[in-house]
Specification:
The protein is α/β, with parallel strands linked by helices and about 110 residues long. About 35% of the residues lie in helices and about 15% in strands. The chain has one domain. The chain is elongated and about 75 Å long. The relative contact order is 0.14. This is Aldehyde dehydrogenase family protein. GO terms for molecular function: oxidoreductase activity, acting on the aldehyde or oxo group of donors, NAD or NADP as acceptor.
Length: about 110
C-alpha cells in the first residue's frame, strides 16, 4: 500500500479528492488488513513521513522509495505476510538453532 501525504499538510485538501480524512485515517486504512509485508509513504516532510511509517504494521516501510532491497537490510513481513526474516544478521539467525545451558556450580560443591 502506498500512502501519499499531502505536501501542503492540509488533510482537508486530500480528503476533498477522496484519499483520506487525516493521518489517523491513513494509518487505520493501511493497517486494516491481515497482511503486512511492505508499504511506502511519500511526502516532502521526511519527519512526518517517518512518523506515519512507524505506525504502519508492515515488515518494511519505504519512505519516498519502493522495492529497494539489499542483502544488508532485513526483510520480512508482519501479520499473515510470512514467517521469518531474509537478509542481514536477522536473516542469518533464522538458520541457527540457539541453545542455552545454565549450570549452577555452587550446587555441586554443596552436594553430600
Amino acid at each position: 500500500m502506498a500512502l501519499q501525504l499531502p505536501f501542503s499538510g492540509q488533510a482537508e485538501e486530500a480528503s476533498s479528492r477522496g484519499r483520506f480524512t487525516d493521518l489517523d485515517d491513513v494509518v487505520a486504512r493501511a493497517n486494516a488488513t491481515q497482511y503486512g509485508l511492505a508499504a511506502s509513504v511519500w511526502g516532502k516532510d521526511i519527519a512526518a513521513a517517518r512518523a506515519v511509517a512507524e505506525r504502519i504494521e508492515a515488515g518494511t516501510v519505504w519512505i519516498n522509495d519502493i522495492h529497494s532491497f539489499s542483502p544488508h537490510v532485513a526483510f520480512g513481513g508482519h501479520k499473515q505476510s510470512g514467517l521469518g526474516i531474509e537478509n542481514a544478521l536477522e536473516g542469518l539467525a533464522e538458520y541457527t538453532n540457539a541453545q542455552t545451558i545454565v549450570t549452577n556450580s555452587w550446587a555441586i560443591g554443596q552436594a553430600a
